[in-house]
Amino acid sequence: MAKVVDRAIWSAGPVFIFIAVALIDMCVLAYYLIVFPYNHLALFEGETSLLGKLNVALTLLFTFYMVYCIHFHYYMSIRTHPGGMATSTTETDGNHSEEDAHNTLLEFEEDAQYPKICKKCNLPKPERTHHCSVCNACVLRFDHHWHFNHRYFVLFMTYMVLSAIYFLIFGWRPFIVCLDILDLEWPYYYPRALMAFSYILSICMGVALGALCAWHYYLILTAQTTVEFYSNYYEKGVAKSQGEIFVNMYNFGCIENLRRFFNIGDKYAWYTVFFPIPIPPRGNGRQFEKCQEFYMLPEAQQQDALLANQAVQDLEDIKDL
């Protein structure tokens, strides 16, 4: 039964994508056909001053940027392969040989302490990798399908939430008018019902995506995936009961975690976060550096942490978490 459901989800993917794009673009049309003209009525009446025209130009530039970023990051998040054992590649740059050597050392370290074979793929299964039942393949740094498209997905949600807030702030007056409560004229070609639906949809998307986006930023700041969050929560309780200190081996601090996630500070400048351009994640998704605090733990506690991660992956093989 589970396989039938997974196959149905996989087959319905293009339909969900089409619906998502259609709903987003419906709100975009509602903004440009109703909200923007309503808030800049003087422009259409030919009474706009130079300062007013500059405000209109900046508003259009900002909204065009937001719309493009939403579509770009959504496209990249669904078109970029999340990464598996057959697709993982090392990020290339001018320091390629040095990075290869560093990743090789990490891989030797992992293989020495963390040998792992997926019971379903029969392929090597690096740390933080889990088997996806829908794709029927292992995914690197698995969460909702991560390593190589995680950055695009988070930025897509970020721009969606910000755009929804912007639409709600500047669209509430046209929304009241479209409800026909005040018996005012409706001079727009866009139907009242679609405007009302677009506004309510923006509220729903803002709340739902806002919660999901906040959750993922929390995971980014704490260097965890959803699976690791629940595992770490349990391990924290065990460590506390034994009088030990729990250390998330991947946590380098909030700022460094953000820098590593968005891959900025080394090859890419910080402001590239705002550029709708393809930027790969840091590393190849197969090896991950450990923080200094982890190596300061007793060796036995380090081994327990590695075995705990491996146990979670074993459970993943059985249940497809």
UniProtKB/TrEMBL annotation:
<keyword id="KW-0012">Acyltransferase</keyword>
<feature type="transmembrane region" description="Helical">
    <location>
        <begin position="12"/>
        <end position="34"/>
    </location>
</feature>
<keyword id="KW-0812">Transmembrane</keyword>
<keyword id="KW-0472">Membrane</keyword>
<dbReference type="InterPro" id="IPR001594">
    <property type="entry name" value="Palmitoyltrfase_DHHC"/>
</dbReference>
<dbReference type="InterPro" id="IPR039859">
    <property type="entry name" value="PFA4/ZDH16/20/ERF2-like"/>
</dbReference>
<keyword id="KW-0808">Transferase</keyword>
<feature type="transmembrane region" description="Helical">
    <location>
        <begin position="54"/>
        <end position="75"/>
    </location>
</feature>
<keyword id="KW-0449">Lipoprotein</keyword>
<feature type="transmembrane region" description="Helical">
    <location>
        <begin position="152"/>
        <end position="176"/>
    </location>
</feature>
<keyword id="KW-0564">Palmitate</keyword>
<dbReference type="Pfam" id="PF01529">
    <property type="entry name" value="DHHC"/>
</dbReference>
<comment type="similarity">
    <text>Belongs to the DHHC palmitoyltransferase family.</text>
</comment>
<feature type="domain" description="Palmitoyltransferase DHHC">
    <location>
        <begin position="115"/>
        <end position="231"/>
    </location>
</feature>
<dbReference type="GO" id="GO:0016020">
    <property type="term" value="C:membrane"/>
</dbReference>
<feature type="transmembrane region" description="Helical">
    <location>
        <begin position="196"/>
        <end position="220"/>
    </location>
</feature>
<keyword id="KW-1133">Transmembrane helix</keyword>
<dbReference type="GO" id="GO:0019706">
    <property type="term" value="F:protein-cysteine S-palmitoyltransferase activity"/>
</dbReference>
<protein>
    <recommendedName>
        <fullName>Palmitoyltransferase</fullName>
        <ecNumber>2.3.1.225</ecNumber>
    </recommendedName>
</protein>
